[in-house]
Design a protein that fits this description.
- The complex is a heterotrimer of chains A (384), B (338) and C (392).
- Chain A is an all-alpha fold and 384 residues long.
- Chain A is built from 14 helices and 2 strands.
- In chain A, a hairpin with a 2-residue loop joins β1 and β2.
- In chain A, α3 crosses α13, α9 packs antiparallel against α12 and α10 runs antiparallel to α11.
- Among the domains of chain C are: 48 residues; 190 residues, MetI-like fold (Orthogonal Bundle), CATH 1.10.3720.10.
- Chain C is globular, with a radius of gyration of 28 Å.
- Classes of the chains: A mainly alpha (384), B alpha/beta (338), C alpha+beta (392).
């Protein structure tokens, strides 16, 4: 009865259909992540609204209404009352040199540039885990570079024979001061922080007590009071006639302050080293310092690289506080440029702050990305 | 270990190489080749840096005049910007050689801080600036106003005294730096901005619309501003004092930067003594006899400096008023060179 | 070290860790004493040379300057000491409000970062990244500038309704003036709070014994809000409002929040909230998913799961870093000095300028902030121990 033609027997596999449009591609992604439920949809709309109402004014100010070229304030003033004038980038352009170098003599700027160049040249390979010769690199960066940078920036004169004319720190400013304070602060506080961390874990009661008091004291007070102390009180602590450079006073304050934070970071690393490492080292007959130097610290310091970078980010941001004690870091230099009447316009302040904000963000965000990268890398290395 | 401490040690070396407050400032200055001059952190007309970092102003001219007198070079001077709070410490500690930073000469400062005021280069007084559209014409109408001012100065105390003496309530908003005060006043945080009248004219330039603001007629204090040196070095004190006097005397005698070379041939004995063609007055303060001629040639006399920096033709537009020569109705009166 | 003569032979003495330890410690103490003596003697010599007197008696002297925000009574004739106390109170005020707002914003943002909604979680992510990576001082300056520039002058104030007014002199609110009988409502509130605690512990015991639950939440609502409100109504609404009115240059009367306070509070809350958000996120992520699944398997619904299982465990991870953020906020409030908010540091600085007592003022600052820090740490250690006991 049955007609063979009435049956359909599939002899080959049906082709795979693509997943429904509603679950793949942009639409599927949106359904899943943005509009999965009514509540979610409302959230999405609110979120987009918030993002729009925050980003638009910034774009409007920084790009659409912005003034890019000009000789003085007239370029950035409203032509007629009520006209909106955005960021005055012409002013930032005119002051760019000061923002980067402060009032460093123009004919000597190449010295600062060499320092910037050396810094980048040594730091980048040091920061990349895959580049070999870390020991030499670290030696160059932590020991040779500070010496070179010191003579390049402050000057080098043998009697009447002048290699680099002396440039006082009073004329340093802008990004230069920000970097000098942050980098010196972190490099100088590292050994101090290691010593304090070891002291805090020491068996010797007095050393332990002194370390704890030191650490808790500096961590308990705001940096601004430390800076006041460094700039106002330090001169009183020294014998008559001995007088520290103002930048150096600030550097001392910043170093002591960040050493306390560094100590806590390093302590975290020391605590993460299993006891077996200490015992193993001692079983090999190593004394305290060789044990620390050869076994414990290399492991502990490697572990705390992200912590050190985070401390550095904090310090980098905190360098702005030196403007309160009358020094010109990047933010201080920008604020001081507000007093120049050639560029005084209502948009000068917001423009300057926006510029400072972007610069700081780029530095800090970059470093925090690096810290996360290192954290992931170290994490896999220590998975057991 | 020691390797890691190297940056610290180096840093220490950097600072200790700095200064010591020794007695013979002039010798130190001659040895290092420049005058270290403490100035403000930016006050148009008095001491203000431009975008190239060049300093100009009435207070700056005092330092430049000293450089001219000592080195015959107005650029042999380095400027240290100082806040109101730091200025005296910087001078006491020897960080600077002379402080020329619109500093009021008061008895306390002259007698108890180990300082000497070398004269007055601007007679000032504390005043008030308001917006024109408030319709205020006298400071006595300011009852209930918000007042912006600087901390760490006498202005903060003067304004408190003034409002209290006149039984007027007020709100004080006191900032650390002049720029912050100006920014807050400009943004409308305060009705009144009070500081030295010269400062009001100078700061008015930084406002968005300087024409919308006016300085009230009341002056509530005496503020003679002048250069300051450390006590205990009379030679240096005399040098600063007479640098200023030379500029004032030059204006009185009609010696200007344009005619100073011609005036050297003048028959007027006063001019001769001033320009060093007669007598040895310069040697008495440790300089060459043409010291005043150098000052006038490079910097100009007091009147020229005033006109170039704060006078009616500058953006500040301050009239000579009380700062005119004694012979022209002001109070500027320099002792004679003889 | 005179007793070395009685000790065992030299070689072993040098290697004896106890002796070496003692030696190092004595060395450190000697170094510290020498350093301390160096500093003290120099300071004394410098002070004498510069003719600066020292001591704290200057705190009694007349201040002579005005202060813009005074929680307690103050006039120009008050003393330096009182000006510093006012600064301290202002610091506390901004810290307490800052902690409150930072916690709320931080929790919202932290939970948003874990949202499955892409827009919300990205928004929260960029909020955290931008705010964390820009210096706080810059943010304070920026918000202050924005606040005073974007608000109108007093004569063109924005009326926000209910008597609230916003202008560039601050935010003015009607100020409640409580009548005498309002004291009864306050008493009712205190009774309500005590009653709630009693009921809660009773309900717990009963639940442990019998398994029966008691609606503690509702009872608490009634006792803490309803009861005082009822007393308030019965006593005849003993409250009047003082409204801010434009008089001369400024608004007078009412409760005023000065722009400096608002800008500082805003910046501190926003900044600290970014850090708290990260702590909240990490805290919630630290509770393993198995916990939620197990709770669901036990038949708990979403809300009790969160309340009884996830949050108590997350809190234990979150509270120590959270406290250090609260401390940071308090310490960061010292940046007030940049925008003329009269906090402890700003007022101290004015006193320092007027009286020249640098050492004393810096000393006061350090003692105050240190006590705050150490007090909080002590409390946290106690709290941590308590939490650890609950953990079993």
């Amino acid at each position: 009865m049955a007609n063979a033609e009435m049956f359909h027997v599939r002899t080959e596999e049906a082709p795979l259909l693509p997943a429904p449009v509603s679950t793949t591609g942009a639409i599927g992604w949106m359904r899943q992540n943005l509009f999965s439920s009514i509540g979610n949809t409302i959230l999405t709309v609110i979120g987009i609204f918030i993002a729009y109402s925050m980003i638009m004014p910034i774009i409007q100010f920084a790009f659409i209404d912005a003034v890019w070229t000009g000789e003085d304030r007239t370029a950035c003033l409203a032509a007629e009352p009520g006209e909106k004038v955005g960021a005055c980038w012409a002013y930032v352009g005119a002051y760019m040199k000061q923002f980067i170098y402060g009032r460093y003599p123009y004919e000597e700027l190449y010295r600062v540039n060499i320092v910037y160049g050396l810094f980048a040249l040594l730091l980048i390979p040091l920061a990349m885990p895959s580049v070999p010769a870390k020991g030499l690199n670290a030696f160059l960066f932590l020991v040779m570079f500070p010496i070179a940078a010191y003579y390049l920036l402050t000057g080098l004169e043998f009697g009447s024979f002048v290699v680099f004319p002396i440039v006082e720190t009073a004329v340093w400013g802008g990004l230069l001061v920000t970097l000098v304070i942050a980098v010196t602060g972190i490099v100088a506080s590292l050994p101090l922080g290691v010593a304090l961390a070891l002291g805090r874990r020491s068996q010797m009661p007095i050393i332990k007590l002194v370390s704890i008091i030191f650490i808790e004291f500096w961590r308990g007070v705001p940096l601004i009071t430390v800076l006041f102390m460094a700039s106002v009180m330090l001169p009183l602590f020294l014998p008559e006639g001995v007088n520290f450079d103002k930048l150096l006073r600030v550097l001392i304050g910043v170093t002591l302050f960040s050493a306390a934070y560094m100590a806590e970071v390093v302590r975290g690393g020391l605590q993460a080293i299993p006891k077996g490492q200490y015992e193993g080292a001692m079983a090999l007959g190593l004394r305290f310092w060789p044990m620390m130097y050869l076994i414990i610290l290399p492991q502990a310091l490697k572990l705390v690289i992200p912590g050190i970078v985070n401390t550095f980010i904090g310090l980098f941001k905190d360098t702005t506080l030196v403007l309160i004690v009358g020094m010109f870091d990047l933010l201080g230099q920008i604020k001081s440029s507000f007093s120049d009447s050639t560029w005084a316009t209502p948009s000068q302040g917001p423009t300057g702050y926006l510029f400072a904000g972007v610069v700081f963000f780029l530095f800090c965000f970059g470093m925090s990305r690096y810290s996360i990268f290192m954290e992931k890398k170290l994490h896999t290395g220590h998975k057991r | 270990m020691s390797k890691k401490f190297l940056p610290l040690v180096l840093g220490a070396a950097m600072g200790v190489a700095a200064t010591s407050a020794s007695a013979a400032t002039l010798d130190d200055v001659k040895a290092k080749g420049f005058v270290q001059c403490g100035v403000s952190q930016g006050l148009p007309g008095f001491s203000n840096p431009d975008s190239q970092g060049n300093w100009t102003g009435l207070d700056v001219d005092v330092c430049r005049a000293m450089a001219a007198a000592i080195f015959d070079d107005v650029n042999a001077v380095k400027f240290t910007p100082l806040s109101a709070k730091e200025r005296f410490t910087a001078l006491q500690s020897g960080e600077i050689d002379v402080l020329s930073r619109n500093t009021t000469w008061t008895m306390t400062r002259d007698t108890s801080l180990g300082l000497n005021f070398a004269g007055v280069n601007y007679y000032d007084g504390q005043g008030f600036m308001v917006r024109k559209d408030l319709g205020v014409t006298s400071a006595l109408e300011l009852s209930g106003a918000s007042v912006c001012t600087n901390t760490g100065t006498t202005t903060e105390l003067n304004v408190a005294d003034y409002f209290r003496a006149n039984n007027m309530p007020y709100e004080i908003v006191a900032f650390e730096k002049a720029d912050e005060v100006v920014a807050a006043y400009d943004a409308g945080r305060c009705d009144v901005y009070t500081t030295d009248a010269s400062g009001l004219y100078a700061q008015r330039l930084k406002l968005t619309n300087p024409g919308d603001h006016m300085v009230l007629p009341e002056i509530i204090s005496k503020e003679p501003l002048g250069p300051v040196v450390r006590q205990g070095d009379d030679q240096w004190f005399n040098l600063v004092k007479w640098t200023l006097n030379a500029m004032i005397n030059a204006e009185e005698l009609g010696v200007t930067s344009a005619n100073v070379d011609d005036m050297k041939g003048s028959d007027n004995p006063s001019v001769k003594r001033l320009l060093g063609t007669e007598g040895a007055y310069g040697e008495n303060i440790g300089l060459t006899n043409d010291w005043a001629a150098r000052i006038i040639k490079h910097v100009g006399n007091y009147g020229e400096s005033f006109d170039a920096n704060v006078g009616p033709d500058t953006p500040l537009g301050i009239a000579r008023g009380v700062n005119a020569l004694w012979s022209k109705g002001g109070v500027l009166y320099a002792p004679p060179v003889r | 070290m005179s007793d070395t003569a009685d000790a065992p032979p030299r070689a072993s003495l040098l290697n004896d860790p106890k002796v070496r330890g003692l030696f190092y410690q004595v060395l450190l103490v000697a170094f510290l004493v020498a350093g301390g003596w160096f500093i003290v003697s120099n300071t004394a010599a410098n002070l004498e040379r510069q003719n600066i007197s020292s001591g704290f008696d200057f705190l009694k002297n007349t201040a002579g300057f005005g202060i813009s925000q005074t929680p307690i009574e103050y006039s120009e004739t008050s003393s330096y000491g009182r000006a510093i106390v006012i600064g301290f109170l202002n610091t506390l005020l901004v810290a307490v409000f800052g902690i409150f707002f930072a916690t709320i914003i931080g929790f919202v943002v932290g939970i948003s970062r874990l949202s499955t909604n892409w827009v919300i979680s990205k928004l929260a992510y960029w909020y955290v990244e931008i705010v964390r990576n820009v210096p706080l001082l810059l943010q304070i300056l920026f918000w202050y500038l924005l606040l005073i520039e974007s608000t109108p002058s007093p004569r063109k104030s924005v009326e926000l309704g209910a008597g609230a007014v916003l202008n560039n002199r601050g935010f003015f609110l009607p100020k409640p003036i409580w009548g005498d009988v309002a004291v009864y409502s306050l008493a009712a509130l205190i009774i309500g709070i005590i009653a709630t605690f009693v009921i809660r512990s009773w309900a717990r015991k009963r639940q442990e014994l019998t398994g029966q639950q008691f609606p503690v939440g509702l009872t608490a609502l009634g006792a803490i809000i309803g009861f005082p409100l009822l007393v308030f109504l019965i006593t005849g609404l003993p409250v009047q409002f003082e409204y801010p009115v434009l008089k001369g240059f400024n608004y007078v009367g009412g409760q005023r929040l000065i722009p400096e306070f608002l800008a500082l509070l805003f910046a501190l809350s926003i900044y600290t909230a970014a850090f708290i958000a990260e702590i909240v996120r990490a805290g919630i992520q630290a509770v393993s998913h198995g916990q939620t699944e197990a709770a669901h398997a036990l038949g708990l619904r979403n809300s009790p799961t969160l309340r009884l299982v996830v949050i108590p465990q997350a809190m234990r991870v979150m509270i120590p870093p959270m406290t250090s953020q609260y401390l940071n906020l308090t310490k960061n409030s010292s940046l007030a000095v940049a925008i003329a908010f009269p906090d402890l540091v700003a007022n101290g600085q004015i006193v320092m300028n007027q009286s020249g007592r640098a050492i004393e003022i810096v000393g006061i600052w350090m003692v105050v902030y240190l006590s705050l820090s150490l007090g909080t740490s002590a409390f946290m250690n106690w709290y941590n121990k308590r939490m650890a006991l609950v953990e079993r």
